[in-house]
Amino acid sequence: MTKKKKDEPRIGVFICSCGTNIGGVINVRKLAREFKDYPGVVFTTSNMFTCSKDGQDTIAQKIKEQDLTGVVIGACTPKLHEQLFREILEESGLNPFRLAQANLREHDTWVHGDKPEEAYNIAYDLVVGAIERAKNLEDIGFEEYSVEKNALVIGAGIAGIQTALDLADKDIKVYLVEKYTSIGGYMARLEKTFPTLDCSMCILSPKLSAIERHKNIELLSYSEVIEIERDYGDFKVRIKKKPRYVNIENCINCGACERNCPVTGPNEWNLGLGERKAVYKPFPQAVPGVFFLDRESCTHWTDGCTICAEKCPRDAISYDVEEEEIEITVGAIIAATGFEEMDIEELPEYGGGKFSRVLTAGQYGRLLSLVGPTEGKILLPPEFEEIPKRIAYINCAGSRDENHRPWCCNFGCMYTLRHAEMTHRLYPDEIEQWIIYHELRAGGKEYEQFYRRVRESGVQFVRGFPSDMVEEQDGSISFSVFDQGTGSLLRLNFDMVVLTMAIDPSPGTAHLAHMMGVDRSEGGFMKELHPKLEPVNTKSRGVFIAGACQSPKDIPASVADGKASASAAASHVLKGKVRVQMDKAVVNEELCIGCGLCEKVCPFAAISMTVGDDERQLAEVSSILCTGCGKCQVVCPTGAISRRHFTTEQIEAEILGLISAHKKREQAEKTPGGA
C-alpha cells in the first residue's frame, strides 16, 4: 500500500557527499543542517554515498519512522540512480513518484568546483527548489501489459547471429530477419580475423549452421521490416519477403543454373571486384545454402531467357514468384543491422572512384580471400594479372576528419595490420608494404603484440597525412606525405593504395530507428539508453541494439553485444508482462481544441486525434507509447496537455523555490550584519 498525500507535507532531505565529487567542494553536513527548520521538512541528514546500502537503509528507515510524505535527495543526476531510489520508496510504503532529486553534482559542484562558496549557495537553492517540488508531488500508479515470449532480431551478421542463438537456447522463439540473400554479415567476407589470424569461416560457419538447424529460430532471409507498431506490451511487425526465384526446398546446390547462365554483372559480395552470374550463391558456406536469381541482372524479364530453369534438374527455378508480406507479433526487438564502409567516391582527393588501383580495405580483404575474385592472390586491378611490388595502406581515410566523418572507425588500425601481416605471409619477399597513419590504436586483447609482430616483419610506418595524390601513366599511384617522425617531406610511389575507410551505419538505419522509436547519435548510429549502465537498451521499452549499428565495433565486441542484448531481451520477455509507470502525458478534454499540434510533434506516435462524445476532435494519448518527453506539453496552445510528475504547478513550485532562496540570500547580504 502507498501513502495518500497528506494536508501537511512531511519531507525528508538526504544530502549525498558522493565521495569528493560533492563533499570535496561544499560542506554537505552544514547544507543538511540548513533545512532542519525549513517549512515542511521533518528530517534531514547527510551521508557519504546515498546510493550505498547504508544510504538506502537510512532512507527506508526514515520513511517509516518519520511517516514521510515526500523524499528529497541532493546527489548526482537522476539518470543514474532515480530508479533505485524510487524502488526504495515503494518498498517502504511510499509512492515512488514522491521523490524529488536535486542534481548537486552535474549541475553544481562539477561546474563550480573552483568556487566553493558559490557552489554552496547554488546547492542550497537547488535543494529548496526540490523541497517545494516535493510538496506538490502526487501518487502515480502503474499498468501491466502482457508480453509475448518471442523476439525479432533484425540483421544476421555476427552480432545478430549471436543474439538469435542465445535467445533460442533460452527456449525463446526467434524471428531472424536478414535483408541479404545469406546470413553472415561482414565477418563472412573475411578470410582471417585479427589478432590471431584464425580462419574466419571456421569460427562463423558452425554458427550459420546452428541458425539453420535451431528449432526455435525462423530465418527470414532476403526480407525487410517495413512497419513496426506498438501493441500494448508487444510489437506488431510487418515483414516483406522478397522472391529468390529459387525454391529453397527443391534446390540441391548442383550449380547447373550458374554454370549455364549467360549473364554476368558486378559481384556485390566482392564489393564490386570481379563478376558473378545473374543466378549465383554469394559464397560457398552461404545460409540458406541455395542459389539466388537476381532479377535486376537476369534477362528473363526483358528477353525471355529461361536457360537456368531448363538446366535445373529439380525444377527449383520459378519466375512467377511474387513478393509476400507477413505480420508477426513479438515481445522484443533487437536491432543488429551492422555497418558499411564510407563510399570511396567521397574521397576524390585519394583517387576514390577515379583510380582503379585505389581500393577500400574491404575490397582488399576480398583479394585475400580464397573464395574472392583472385582466389587469395594479390593482383593489380582491373586486369588482376600482375602482383604489385609496393602497396600503401592509408589509415583513417575519411574518419577522424571534420570534413567527412569525425568519429574513429575503431577497428581500422587492426584491420590494416591484419592485411599487412597476411600479405607478408603470402609474399614475404615480393611485396614492399607501407602504412601511412595518424595514430595507431591497438587497445584490445593481444592487439599490441600483433602490432609489434607486424612492425618487426619489415612493414614501413610513416606518421603523416597523404596529399597531392596522382595516377601515373603506368597506373601506379604517387602522393606526398610529411613524415612527422623524421621531419621530412616524402614523395612516394606505389603500385596499389588501400584506403582504410570511415565506417557508416548500414543503409536504412535511420528509417528502422524511427520505426522502433530509437534515437540516433553522431553519424546516425543507434543510440543506447545509457553508455555505461544500459549499453544495449534503448529509450523504447522492449527494443535493444547490438553490434556496429550502435557504433563501429570489432568482432569480439559485437559478439559480446549480441550476448548482452539477448540477456536483456530474455529478461524482458520471460517475465510475461511489462510494468509501465503512468507518468505520461494527459489531456484535459475541456481545454483541448483538437488542433493536432501535439500529434504532429510526438516522436513516438503516441498521440492520435479522436472524436469525443460531443463530436469534438480531441487528442488521445497511448500510455504504452508515450515516454513522457514533454514535447506535446510545449506546443499545446491552450495548456490542455500536461505530463504527470512534471505538471505546471510542480514546475512553478520548483522555480519559485529557487528564486525565493536566491532573493533571500541577496537580501541578507544587503542587510547590515547579514550573512
Task: Tell me about this structure.
This protein is an alpha/beta fold and 675 residues long. It has 5 domains: 153 residues, Rossmann fold, CATH 3.40.50; 175 residues, FAD/NAD(P)-binding domain; 56 residues, no CATH class; 164 residues, FAD/NAD(P)-binding domain; 61 residues, Alpha-Beta Plaits, CATH 3.30.70. The chain is built from 18 helices and 34 strands. The strands form 12 sheets. It has a 5-stranded parallel beta sheet with strand order 10-7-6-18-29. A 5-stranded parallel beta sheet has the order 20-27-21-22-23. The N terminus is likely disordered.
State the main characteristics.
disordered N terminus; 5 domains; globular; 18 helices; alpha/beta; 5-stranded parallel sheet; 675 residues; FAD/NAD(P)-binding domain; 28% helix; Rossmann fold
